[in-house]
Design brief:
By secondary structure, this protein is mostly helical. It has one domain. It has 3 helices and no strands. It has helices spanning about 5-25, 35-65, 70-80. The chain is rod-shaped and about 60 Å long.
Length: about 80
């Protein structure tokens, strides 16, 4: 049975992955020539978005794995403590 925190984490990761995919598509082929400073600035912003989203996903997954109970008894104790 999935807890609310599992569902919230899943929704967050799904949203982040969608953002990553959209930014990746917008970046297109790295070999394309970009001549204007505005085009280069736009690519830099998209790269920053990608890095931020990837970092957030990694951090949240790592946090979840660190705090995830390892046994059914520990899961029950965690649910009880949350209420």
């Amino acid at each position: 049975m999935r807890s609310n925190s599992d569902e919230t984490l899943g929704q967050y990761i799904s949203s982040s992955l969608i953002s990553i995919k959209e930014a990746s598509v917008e970046l297109g082929d790295a070999s394309d020539a970009y001549d204007t400073p505005a085009e280069i600035a736009s690519r830099i912003k998209l790269c920053n978005l990608l890095l931020c989203e990837i970092s957030c996903v990694r951090r949240n997954l790592a946090r979840r794995l660190t705090y995830r109970p390892s046994t059914p008894a520990a899961e029950a104790a965690e649910r009880t403590a949350q209420h």
